[in-house]
Design brief:
The structure is a single chain. This protein is mainly alpha-helical. Helices cover 59% and strands 6% of the residues. The protein has twelve helices and four strands, in the order E-E-H-H-H-H-H-H-H-H-H-E-E-H-H-H. The chain has a two-stranded antiparallel sheet with strand order 1-2. It has one domain. A hairpin with a 2-residue loop joins strand 1 and strand 2. It is globular and about 60 Å long.
Length: 294
């Protein structure tokens, strides 16, 4: 979380090799603590994989897909944040800071074996629960780091509410704390990737590859259809992606592997203007601001 710290890019972490090359974790989490926590999470995923069934397969396909979407959304917000800062659009900064961090915390929570699905309620749980659960997990790895993360996210939440509800006359002075939000977001993102790799390894090891699991359409629909205060929203693109995964990758994989190049390109491209102009924000400009997407 220190912007002056040298960033490490490597596949080795906690005495293991990972498919993803981490930017942050190896430099900020102590090996001993990481090994103990990861072993505990691995045991939970192993227990789950040994009882694998169609419901779990559908649930974790949606959970991993949603985690990937949260990371893509946070990346878009962080790129928007940098643009707003460069153009002095400061009134947007509190929202982009807080929600980019909230999205990656949601990605982490969705990847945890300890968090029950509750018929999809996990996706829409309150900000408070998301913050409490994710910061608790970070504290398992490093108590001080988890406490600092919690303190910072609550500070950003308070600033967002200050601008929304009190409209302070000091304006931008109150709205722009000196926080390295990109580095802050990277920690939960990479922990979510760790969890998803543990899940994939448990499935590969304990679920016979020849066994096929039917996918529950009601669970899959949670990924692309939602009702909010009487308004129903069906996202055709999310529906297409879930259908693609159901056909091509019907078992959950790691977050990074689930992000196909086509999905990433379409996601960011959907925010591009039909009539681009010089100086306009370009959603395609910085896909990898947070995570090494394809």
């Amino acid at each position: 979380m220190n912007s002056k710290r040298k960033v490490v890019d490597q596949h080795a972490f906690a005495g293991r090799e990972w498919s993803y090359a981490f930017r942050e974790l190896p430099g900020i989490i102590k090996e001993g603590a990481a090994r103990r926590v990861i072993l505990k999470k691995e045991q939970a995923f192993t227990k789950m994989a040994k009882a694998w069934n169609s419901r779990l397969n559908s649930e974790w396909l949606v959970r991993t897909f949603y985690s990937a979407k949260m990371i893509l959304s946070a990346s878009l917000m962080l790129a928007s944040l940098e643009y707003c800062r460069s153009r002095n659009v400061r009134i947007c900064i509190p929202y982009l800071q807080y929600y980019s961090l909230l999205y990656v915390l949601k990605a982490l929570v969705l990847s945890l074996p300890s968090q029950p699905w509750r018929n999809g309620e996990l996706i829409s749980q309150t900000h408070k629960k998301t913050i409490d659960i994710s910061c608790h997990v970070v504290r398992e790895f490093d108590k001080e780091l988890g406490e600092r993360l919690r303190e910072t996210v609550l500070r950003l939440k308070a600033i967002r509410e200050l601008i929304s509800y009190r409209a302070p006359s000091s304006g931008g002075t109150a709205a722009d704390p000196l926080v390295n939000v990109i580095a802050l977001c990277a920690l939960p993102v990479e922990l979510a990737q760790v969890m998803s790799e543990l899940l994939q390894r448990a499935i590969d090891k304990h679920v016979p590859p020849q066994v096929e699991f039917s996918l529950d359409d009601d669970i899959l629909a949670i990924a692309y259809s939602v009702e909010i205060k009487g308004n129903v929203f069906d996202d055709k693109e999310d529906g297409y992606r879930i259908d693609y995964l159901a056909r091509k990758h019907p078992r959950p994989t790691s977050i990074h592997r689930m992000m196909t190049e086509g999905h990433v390109e379409d996601f960011f491209g959907s925010w591009c203007s039909d009539k681009p102009q010089a100086g306009m924000f370009d959603p395609d400009a910085n896909w990898q601001i947070l995570f090494d997407v394809p």
